[in-house]
Amino acid sequence: MDNPFFINNGPFKFRDILKDLDIENNQNIQDQNIIDIKDLLNSKSNEITFFHSKKYKTAANITKASFCITTKNLQNELPKSCIPIIVDNVLVSTSLITAKFYPDSINDNFDETIKEINQTKFNDKVKFGKNVLLGDNVLIGSNCKIGHNTIIEKNVIIGNNCSIGSNTIIRNSLIKNNVKILDNCVIGKHGFGFFPTQNKNLRYPHMGIVIIEDDCEIGCGSTIDRGSMSNTIIGKNTYLDNQIHIAHNVVIGENSIIAGQVGIAGSSIIGNNVKIGGQAGISGHLKIGNNVEIAGGSGVIKDIPDNSKVMGYPAKSIREFLRENRWFTIQRLLIPKQKFLLM
Fold first, then answer.
1. pLDDT score recorded for residue 26
2. How far apart are the C-alpha atoms of 225 and 204, rounded to whole Å?
3. Which CATH superfamily is domain 12-105 in?
4. Is residue 248 annotated as part of the catalytic site, yes or no?
5. pLDDT at position 108, please?
6. Which DSSP string corresponds to 150-180?
7. Cα gap 211→249, rounded to integer Å
8. What tens digit of pLDDT does each residue of 75-99 get?
9. Distance between CA atoms of 211 and 224, rounded to whole angstroms?
10. Which residues share a beta bridge with 224?
11. What's the chain's Rg over C-alpha atoms?
């Protein structure tokens, strides 16, 4: 992932990285420059990555990174071209190094670059309501509308024919063409990533962005967190209902429909043509296949293959769920008949 908004403070010497992690190392490469930190799949030569779970074994096997923060038990999964940096807690160590490269990605304080839109070059190019504010590094395409009391903070690109509702806040986001974002949304703020360390919570940097592809609609009161080390992506022609939370690094495919009050935890991947009923919850780091239907109120805690229909908690195939709950199903079906006989 090439970062379009956050400034990389690198490169750093290998020895400086080791010092930050309190690691002693006598290798002869301590003067080698490390130019960036990325995930396993996107990292390249002279970059550092991290590997904390066997779930990402396949990506670890083919990573092109020169260095990897990992554990003793996982180090043998890395290619010989990648030097392991052995630590006790991979995610905490990765957080420390990411903050070294991208210190501006940790906190989301209010944007001090904000100006009223009528004081910017977009005064005559955008139709806007009252009290609309824009930050630095904002680009807005043609034929766009922005509602009352909305703040487009720094580092936002909005395409053509977009409609942004009232009382909405957007930052660190790329919004493509023909997108509708309704009232009271928050898009592009950092996710809920932190690690408890003794009596303090260590917040994880979020250097990714939010990408909303063409022809999407985001319902009222929805929140979409930006990615931590990769991007949060909403695929083309996907519609989100009201009060939906999309956590960091989530990728949702094209032509999907998600009903109200659904929550999708971090780093889950949702396929194309997926339908999710209201108040369903999807745990983190899962893969939901294409053409999947998830019934309302379901709790998804494992991967779901293509073309599946699931319901319940934990979510399982509808046929299996109905078979296991046959008695309750029969009773529910009989109730209308009994009422009819009593009339």
1. 60
2. 13
3. MurE/MurF, N-terminal domain (3.40.1390.10)
4. yes
5. 87
6. -EE-SSEEE-SS-EE-SS-EE-SEEE-TT-E
7. 11
8. 999 999 999 999 999 999 999 999 9
9. 10
10. 187, 246
11. 23
List the end-to-end C-alpha distance of the chain, in Å, as a whole number: 66
Give the tens place of pLDDT for each residue, 266-284. 999 999 999 999 999 999 9
What is the DSSP annotation of 64-96? Answer: --SEEEE-TTTGGGS-TTSEEEE-S-HHHHHHH
Catalytic residue, candidates 190, 245, 248, 285? 248
Instruction: For residues 204 and 37, give the distance between their C-alpha atoms in angstroms, rounded to a whole number.
Output: 14
State how far the Cα of 20 lies from the Cα of 34, in Å rounded to an integer.
14
Q: What does the block give as tokens for 265?
A: 């935890």
C-alpha 143/C-alpha 93 separation (Å) is 46
Q: Is 247 helix (H, G, I), strand (E, B) or coil?
A: coil
Output the six-digit token pair for 115. 């100006």
| Mean pLDDT of the 49-75 span | 94
What global pTM score does this model have? 0.89
Residues with Cβ within 8 Å of residue 24, at least 6 apart in sequence: 18
Percent of the chain at pLDDT exceeding 90: 79
Joined tokens for residue 305: 């293959």
